[in-house]
Write a structure and sequence with these properties.
By secondary structure, the protein is of the alpha+beta class. It contains six helices and nine strands, in the order E-H-E-E-H-E-E-H-H-E-H-E-H-E-E. Strands 1-3-2 form a three-stranded antiparallel beta sheet. A three-stranded mixed beta sheet has the order 4-5-6, covered by helices on one side. The protein has a three-stranded antiparallel beta sheet with strand order 7-9-8.
Amino acid sequence: MIKEAIGVGETEIEALNDAKRQLGLGDNDEVEFELVQRSEKKKFGLFGGSPAKVKVTLKDSPEEAAENFLRNVLDKMGLESVVIEKNSIEDGVEFNISGEDVGFVIGRRGETLDSLQYLTSLVANHTENSYFKVTIDTGNYREKREKTLEILGRKLAFKAVKTGRKTNLEPMNPYERRIIHTAVQKVNGAISWSEGENANRHVVIGPDPKAKNVHRGGYNRGRGGKRPYNANRSSYSAPVDPDRKPLNEGGETGLYGRIDK
């Protein structure tokens, strides 16, 4: 939202300070202004003359623009009672939405929440040239979603090692794909990669063709070996290596990454 005020005074400085006061600013606050009309003194102290006019324009900060847009969208969705809590962070802001019908804001697998965050980020990043990070959450949904994806990634990684088959996951945004990659690549004998374009891009999890000495089931089938009697099937999972580096897809900038103008 852009706020403007035109100040009037006998001098340009008085007109500028008048505009500042109209906008709730102090005389010493620095602002960008436009000189609309210079002051002219009366001739012979009796005729003509005109006051100075100065226009001051204030633009919302990225944080203010994001909050105003988010509030407006929620109101248009019929969620006027929803509360928005704001927390300023380094290079950005976090919004937490609470109240009734917040499930409507989340949508199917978080798609509505992701879209709302993406659009709010676009608005915030059109106010200045620097990147401004926006995160929108509700009821710790993103933390719960991240844990769910980590469990899913490891489960399918173990499955790939045991069966030698690959699994295609549903389309995800870059941030969620990276969570899957991080979980999979900590399991020796399993790898993950992405396929598809744009909205159809998804993760595929399969056995690592370069892995050696990682046997499905933990015993030698090729030489007629038999599975030990009454063995616990879970004990034959592929070993987990916490030091393996995850595939860096989506970077470190969060959901959708950086949004350029």
